[in-house]
Inverse folding.
């Protein structure tokens, strides 16, 4: 198994403009990862899958992560042919609100199909080039992305008809917060 | 837009997409929602099927009926507090869920596991694999219409294993048994003796099961050549476990990673030839035999010693900032946990890699062109648990 540095130089030898960057992992697991640029991600993914020495033909796991300033997708790759791994790829969106697109790797590894749909559903990353990007776990009419750290429950559930003080208090607080948010949104 | 027009318009790109089925022009297409309350789905799961006569021309899986945002809940509690909740993912095999989670946290924190605990993990893990495969075969036959008998045979064997779990952990299914750095309680010599006795009876059960089913004419007619999965597609779609090996791909994480102490045991990896439903059934049967072999070796060699690393910290456990991905060969496939720590008492990100969900990626590919009655069988041969699919 090559180290991340060797994989990085192999990628750069094949694709000079790839711009891959190593993300060190200080934990004892020492699973370092490679950060890809959005523009070259698909080409790098194809190279990693088709390269005879790396042969990372098996994408195991796709994870969405919500960081304070951006959203991230993490891909764990293994090789069934060579029986090595993991090689970890990461991609970051520009920000958390407007530019949340990332290139989909489903055309390269089909196992990303449901997992990218799940991330689209729960985090709101839009995977461009995904053949069937719909919500996976929540229903289609659902509005927000529940795995985001700033997610707040919507105010649309029915309160108990005999609401006790605590429920009523919570509802008042919630409605006030939602109204404040709306005004702030209208002002901007 | 009608379903026919939709099907003709959609031309999915790329070699790893299923080729669209074009309906003949006689009659209309029939759309059926199989589920969410269908006896074959083992829970709440829906397949939206479009049929041309009896032939499946489109199948879309609909998930989420059991979604409870397990991952979000785990981000709000300490590392240890998620351990009992992992039991509820794949509730047929709680031990292996515990194991995968414990393994990921141990990787994250650099935690060692004592020898005896490793042996106990292997013993319980293989017992889990045995009872999972037995009941999944039972369910598969049940779905073919053999109502009751094979399933009850399987549950007779499963019952003995669950009794052992209950005696050791206090619970038949929600075991909450593993800890970061070992196991919660030690096994008594009496328990080990009883386990040896139960394991000695298991080959007889497998023989009986095989005699009952393997050459049954109806089973062969219904399953052979049905739901074929090609090895290239299986790898590309991330299919793991018995499904992958039934397609002839030699990939068993117990061999590849050798996690725990698996590289000490002698066992073979059964491989299928055709990748059809019958092969998946047969692989599970053969894996049960290999599990018995591992159990016999582990029960013979298990050493005396502590079951918890004395340096392991349970309360106030705060791993250093970093991340780790740990995976094991669970009975249904590769079960992985991906954890990101920011140095706090809760994980910053907690991700379950569910084999049941990802094995369903190819469900449509396997079902297209088959009769609707075979969909039930093909779906049953994937072996899923909805608690893990929807999380």
């Amino acid at each position: 198994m090559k180290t991340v540095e060797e994989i990085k130089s192999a990628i750069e030898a094949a694709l000079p403009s790839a711009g891959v960057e190593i993300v060190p992992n200080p934990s004892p697991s020492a699973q370092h990862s490679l950060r890809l640029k959005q523009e070259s991600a698909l080409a790098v993914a194809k190279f990693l899958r088709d390269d005879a020495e790396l042969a990372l033909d098996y994408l195991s796991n796709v994870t969405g992560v919500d960081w304070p300033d951006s959203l991230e997708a993490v891909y764990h790759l293994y090789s069934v042919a060579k029986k090595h791994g993991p090689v970890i790829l990461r991609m970051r969106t520009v920000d958390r609100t407007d530019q949340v697109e990332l290139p989909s790797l489903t055309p390269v590894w089909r196992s990303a199909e449901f997992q990218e749909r799940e991330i689209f559903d729960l985090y709101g990353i839009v995977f461009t080039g995904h053949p069937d990007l719909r919500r996976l776990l929540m229903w289609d009419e659902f509005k927000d992305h529940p795995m985001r750290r700033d997610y707040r429950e919507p105010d649309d559930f029915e309160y108990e008809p005999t609401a006790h003080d605590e429920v009523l208090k919570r509802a008042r607080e919630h409605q006030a917060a939602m109204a404040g948010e709306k005004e702030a949104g209208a002002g901007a | 837009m009608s379903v026919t027009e939709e099907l003709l318009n959609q031309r999915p790109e790329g070699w790893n997409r299923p080729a669209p089925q074009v309906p003949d022009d006689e009659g209309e297409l029939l759309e059926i929602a199989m589920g969410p309350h269908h006896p074959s789905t083992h829970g709440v799961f829906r397949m939206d099927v479009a049929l041309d006569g009896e032939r499946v021309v489109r199948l879309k899986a609909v998930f989420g009926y059991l979604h409870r945002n397990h991952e979000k809940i785990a981000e709000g509690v300490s590392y240890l507090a998620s351990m009992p909740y992992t039991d509820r993912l794949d509730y047929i095999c709680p031990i292996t869920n515990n194991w995968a989670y414990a393994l990921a946290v141990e990787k994250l924190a650099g935690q060692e596991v004592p020898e005896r605990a490793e042996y106990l993990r292997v013993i319980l893990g293989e017992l889990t694999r045995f009872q999972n495969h037995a009941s999944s075969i039972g369910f598969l036959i049940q779905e073919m219409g053999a109502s009751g008998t094979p399933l009850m045979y399987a549950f007779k064997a499963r019952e003995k294993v669950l009794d052992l779990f209950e005696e050791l952990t206090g619970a038949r299914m929600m075991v909450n048994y593993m800890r970061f750095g070992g196991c919660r309680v030690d096994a008594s010599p009496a328990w080990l003796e009883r386990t040896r006795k139960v394991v000695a009876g298991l080959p007889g059960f497998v023989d009986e099961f095989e005699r009952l089913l393997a050459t049954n004419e109806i089973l062969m007619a219904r399953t052979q050549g049905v739901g074929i999965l090609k090895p290239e597609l299986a790898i590309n779609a991330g299919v793991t476990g018995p499904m992958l090996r039934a397609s002839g791909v030699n990939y068993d994480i117990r061999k590849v990673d050798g996690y725990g102490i698996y590289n000490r045991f002698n066992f073979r990896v059964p491989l299928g030839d055709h990748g059809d439903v019958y092969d998946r059934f047969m692989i599970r049967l053969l894996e049960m035999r290999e599990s018995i072999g591992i159990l016999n070796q582990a029960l013979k060699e298990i050493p005396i010693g502590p079951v918890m690393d004395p340096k392991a910290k349970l309360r106030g456990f705060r791993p250093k900032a970093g991340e780790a991905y740990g995976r094991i060969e669970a009975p249904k496939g590769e079960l992985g946990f991906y954890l990101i720590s920011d140095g706090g008492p809760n994980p910053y990100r907690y991700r379950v890699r569910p084999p049941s969900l990802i094995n369903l990626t190819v469900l449509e590919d396997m079902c297209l062109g088959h009769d609707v009655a075979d969909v039930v069988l093909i779906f049953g041969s994937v072996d899923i648990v909805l608690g893990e699919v929807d999380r």
